[in-house]
Amino acid sequence: MEIYGDYMGDQVCKIPILHNGPNDSRIWFHCPLGNYSTKSAYLWLSLRHVGLGPHRFFWRMVWKLQTLPKIRIFCWRIGHDILPTYEKICNIRRDFNSDCPRCGRDKETLIHALKDCLRARAVLMHGGLNSKLLDGSHYWGVDWIKKVARLLDLKALSDFITVLWNIWNSRNNKVFWNMEEDAKVTWERAAALSYDFRIFNLLNEPSLPKPDVNKGWRKPNQGMVKINFDAVVKDRKMSFGIIARDHDCFVLGRHAGVLNRNYNAEWAELYALEESIKLAWDNT
Asked: Where is the Reverse transcriptase zinc-binding domain (predicted)?
């Protein structure tokens, strides 16, 4: 009642219970078959620890990046703070110098290597990056990327992560080959990579193909009725449509309408749901 209000809640409570419906059963929602197992519980707890924690937005965003898979994995490693920076190596080898190999001004943490180092900052500033993305002090890389993700759209964020990946490669060239690159070279390499990736996906089969998803209508079980509804909002008007079909796809009822109401999408869908309940109740 608190969610839908007195009228809507009363309509929901009046929906009759099917006497020939399936028997009540306990279902484990974290397994496709609904069966509980120790393995499925362990996987659920592991995913819950990663995906439903304070950084769930970050983990969902990583795999949506419009860039090469190896750059996605690089962003994933940033989130887990497992890039082999000098500070990380120093925690294993106590006699190892943790100072930044490029500027030598501070310990080479992940944030320092990708943002605070003078060489890295020069690359970020070369492309006219918004100063808001570089302001503030962050201890964890995941917090910085989350802040950036709130200010950029997905395409710009993908380009930003590509720049960070090239900054890290430039750092590795200095460490392993003693080759220091100019900020312009690093930035232009990142820009060319992003451009080539998008052009390739336009002219050829995408490097990141979308999975095939069956979005067809599924008929209900024997003796049951399925009601589908939808709503659209445009130009301060709302329109909705409802259709009820049985297990043989035979249309049992339908309803549509247009209202001069300035609803948002959520309220329009809720109104269509209310009309669906009325349709079901009037035909029982």
From this structure: 36-122
Closest CA to 74 of 143, 176, 169, 150: 169
How high does pLDDT run on average in the chain? 84
Q: Which helix (H) or strand (E) holds 283?
A: none
Examine the pLDDT at 138 and tell me if it is beyond 80.
yes
Is there a single domain that holds both residue 69 and residue 195? yes
Rounded Cα–Cα distance for residues 109 and 143 (Å): 14
In this structure, are 122 and 156 located in the same domain? Answer: yes
pLDDT digits (tens, 9 = 90+) for 57-70: 788 889 889 999 99
Question: Are residues 199 and 270 located together in one domain of the fold?
Answer: no
Could you tell me if 249 and 274 lie in one domain? yes
Task: List 226's β-bridge partners, or say none.
Answer: 245
Count: domains in the chain: 2
Q: How far apart are CA 57 and CA 61, in angstroms?
A: 6
CA distance 62 to 164: 14
